[in-house]
Amino acid sequence: MEWPLIGREPDLDHAVGLVESGTGVALLGTAGVGKSRLLHELGDRVERSGMSLVRAVAAGSTKVIPFAPFVELLPGVPTQDRLVMLREALDALHRRRSQRGLILAVDDAHLLDQESLAFVISVASSGAATIGLTARSGEPMASDLVDLWTNGVIERIDLDPLDRETSRSVAEARLGPIGDDLEEELWRLAEGNPLVLHELIEGAIGRALTRGEDGAWKRLGPLAESARLGDLVASRLNALPEDLRSAMELVAVGAPLPSDIFGSMLSDALPDLDSRGLISLIEEVGGRPAIIPSHPLYGEILQSNLDPGRLRSTHRRLVEASLAASHISDPLRVAVWQRDSGDLLDDELALAGAAEALVRHDPGLAEELVGAVGTEGDRAALLLGRALSYQQRFVEAEEVLGGRNPADEDLIGETASVRAQNLAFGLGRISEARRLLSEATTSIVDDQLRSRLNNERAMISAIEGDFVDAIAASEAVLGNHGSSDLARTSAYATLTVAQAMTGDCASLDAIIEEAAQLASQVREKLPFARDQIEIMHMQSLLNAGRLTEALDLAKARLNHDEFGAAMRSTWLSALGLTLDLLARHQQAVEAARMALELYADADPFGLEVQTRGLLALELGLQGLAEAGDPLKNLRLPSRAPRLTVWVDRGTAWAAVADGALENALDVLISGGRHAIAHEHFVWGAFCLHDVVRLGRADLVLEDLRQLPVMNGADLVENMREHAEAQVASDADGLAAVAATFVGMGAALLGAEAWSHAAMLRGEEEAKAALWVLLSAVSESSCEGSDTPALRDRPRLVTAREAEVATDAARGLSSSQIGEARFISVRTVDNHLRSVYRKLGIGGRDELAVLLRRAGRASTSNE
Q1: Which residues touch 768 (CB under 8 Å, ≥6 apart)?
Q2: DSSP secondary structure code for residue 8 in this structure
């Protein structure tokens, strides 16, 4: 029978209040103090209030099986990216959420396997559900679990033993009135531990207890040989009849046991075990009833007392019952049971278990299970090859997969997919991987499988920097009328990368609406696709010189509440790229630092290195001595241009800030050429344009001339014009380039180009003074820019004159300017007369016309 909950009402009310307000709880205490019971009551209470409830139980027997408590949430498809697996499990959990919210109740969280713990951490940090968990004090716990309450993510509630009065109430709720002598003995032995109290009473009923004449229960003899909880539990379990003990051993070793499979097998024993309070029926993730020990100690103690032969026999019985069922809900658990039984593994069960182990990111266990079968069959070879590749044993994986010629179409596709990824990302044999995928598509009839392989080829080509092949493979998917929306979205994700990096803005503009809309429709399956596509749209807007639109897009996406750490960090990095071109260096630094903090939790696209480069770049553009700090001790995981361009630019501008101009030029030229060689034309142009900004366009003009024509990438085209005008010493051309930059919102690039024009002033003093003034006005729109072009600007107009002239052009009176600038009206007028003289103009109206060209830079950055 279930004992009433007495003495925990304040703790329960407190926990319910926290959960209903959205704050998770961790119930901590020693064994037997009542954590599991309180968590069960908490779940029942909040479920009655309208919240959805998902229960999970961790057990020592399942700690070796990854994701065992949450298997129903897994997508069922192997992936090398654990973050993708966690995201899909989070989405599956989210679908169970009611309007009032969702509580994920996890009992004995200290026994969670590593993957399950990572999932619980993700749930807590993303807010996908409110966490309720129990953990046993004094037991070893993973630091990530402890961090949940020490860092304030959830609130810790410590459960102490019951006080003496409450202990008596608990005993009387079970027995009725008890005598003082019995109460004294129960308190002496149990000291307020509810489970000890429970075991003492249940073990003594009918043996050491009797009713007195007054109706109160009294002792006939000793209640127990020992009051140690473990001994109490063991003595009670050892006293069970053989049939009940055997049934209880099955529950202990296999829990949680699906009741639809094991309920009939244990039907004779279950009523007795239930009446003795030894088992409970819970609802697991997915709504399936399952049988578990009513307290974890029952399972732990039974298992620890089983001799090896009886333990193997128990595993064998679990396997036999599972195989006799019409459906095995968790083949990995059954395969591990069979392994632990000492019997030869059933081939089909071993392979099904290995496939499930790969889904749960345990390639070592998958390898062990396949090893028991051998690799003569193509399916077994595929599973082993995948397991070896996931463990980065790439040569061994190729030895297993190479030369395989499966007849089954699905196996042809899967083998080509796994082998190509192993070749490309493990062994660096890119061209061989692409050829393999291309050849496989010719022998595959199924549209979906063919599209998938083309998408994988496109991705490999894009990462390698062969955007011509990436575009061809993506368009093959989009041109296949049998492609699913999922496949088409993946193709768009790769195609937009290729278009953005090669500067094909017009083509990207033509597909962006359809691509984004399609990605939204398949968000549950491809949660990151919409944002990948939109980030490339943002990059394309930058390439086209539509900087304000790019900024608006980045800010709008960052305002979405559904983002977790992974997507927020990615958009913060993208925002930094936009703020860089707008010369909002301090805001870009803040965005980069926020992103770097989030990468500790999630960096699905490997952007930390890129963001460190961006941070160094922004600090360097401000001339700060610490610009090189973000790149200290940095190791590049690869020479992919998406990383190297930003590291090179950050390294170079940090060197400029340190006065090492020649070093900076070498890094920029090398980095730009590397990017262009890998078809990252836009970012390669950015790198080479930095050389132009440093006054050495002659070193890179031919490189910029060799770039292909970019369809609509007006910003990049203007960078090329900047180099042409600088090498030709064309001051008017430089001024025209500056005006174009400023019109796009690139205030710093415009200020630098006007400075370059002024340095070539020759005899045209008034025109040079105008360019200096325009440069200074544009610089005033930047956040602390300090670059060589600005420092070398001719001193034809002072900084104060530029400030006053800008105010006057905006329509402020002399008295208003004086008040704002803390100078006298006379000083204001003197500055204005000096400006009019230098520019050869007659007054404010002409000044306003001349400065209108700089006006867009100012207004777009206010």
Answers
A1: 731, 757, 758, 761, 762, 794, 796
A2: -
Task: Express each pLDDT in 66-104 by its tens digit.
Answer: 888 888 888 766 666 666 777 778 888 888 888 899 999
Residue 41 · residue 5 · CB < 8 Å: yes
* Cα–Cα distance for residue pair 250/61, rounded to 1 Å: 12
Residue 256: is the preceding peptide bond cis (ω within 30°)? yes
DSSP 501-554: HHT-HHHHHHHHHHHHHHHHHTTTTSTTHHHHHHHHHHHHHHHTT-HHHHHHHH
Q: Exposure of 243 by Cβ count < 10 A (0-12 exposed, 13-18 middle, 19+ buried)?
A: exposed
Which residue in 242, 253, 241, 243 sits closest to 298, CA to CA?
Answer: 253
Tokens describing residue 131 = 């966490």
Q: What is the largest CA-CA distance in the chain?
A: 124
Using an 8 Å Cβ cutoff, are 833 and 753 in contact? Answer: no
Are 134 and 154 a contacting pair, CB within 8 Å?
A: no
Measure CA 222 to chain center: 58
| Rounded Cα gap, residues 557 and 554, in angstroms | 5
Q: Which amino acid is at 691?
A: V
Indicate the DSSP class of residue 49: T
* Contact call for residues 568 and 533 (beta carbons, < 8 A): no
Q: Torsion over CA of 118, 120, 125 and 130, rounded to 10 degrees?
A: 180
Query: Measuring CA to CA, which residue among 397, 314, 385, 327 is closest to residue 354?
Result: 385
SS3 content of the chain, % helix, strand, coil (to 5): 65, 5, 30
Q: In Å, how far are 211, 438, 472, 495, 624 from 488, measured between CA atoms?
A: 77, 18, 14, 10, 46
CA distance 549 to 713: 14
What is the Cα–Cα distance from 591 to 575, expressed in whole angstroms? Answer: 7
First to last CA, the chain: 72
- Sorted by sequence, the CB contacts under 8 Å of residue 148 that are 6+ apart come out as 24, 26, 121, 124, 131, 154
DSSP label at 423? I
- Residue of 223, 237, 384 whose CA lies nearest to 306: 237
Bridging pattern class, strands 24-29 and 52-57: unpaired
pLDDT level of residue 11 (50, 70, 90 thresholds): very high
Percent of the chain surpassing pLDDT 70: 95
Q: Please give the single-letter amino acid code of residue 380.
A: A
Within 10 angstroms of residue 780's Cβ, the number of other Cβ atoms is 18
> What tens digit of pLDDT does each residue of 594-634 get?
999 988 766 767 889 999 999 999 999 999 999 999 999 88
Report pLDDT for 477.
95
For residues 296-305, average pLDDT: 82
Residues 6+ apart with CB under 8 A from 380: 351, 370, 373, 374
SS3 155: strand
**Cβ(389)–Cβ(366) below 8 Å:** no
How far apart, in whole angstroms, are the C-alpha atoms of residue 120 and residue 21?
Answer: 19
Alpha helices in 191-282 (DSSP H): 194-204, 229-238, 242-254, 259-262, 270-275
DSSP 214: T
Geometric angle at alpha carbon 516, from 512 and 522, rounded to 5°? 150
SS3 of residue 102 by DSSP: strand
Pair 29, 160: CB distance under 8 Å: yes
Tokens representing residue 420 in the block: 């190509």
Q: Are 579 and 558 in contact (CB under 8 A)?
A: no
pTM given for the model? 0.68
3-state secondary structure of 484: coil
Give the strands of the sheet with 279-283, arranged side by side.
Answer: 257-258, 289-293, 279-283
Amino acid at 536: M
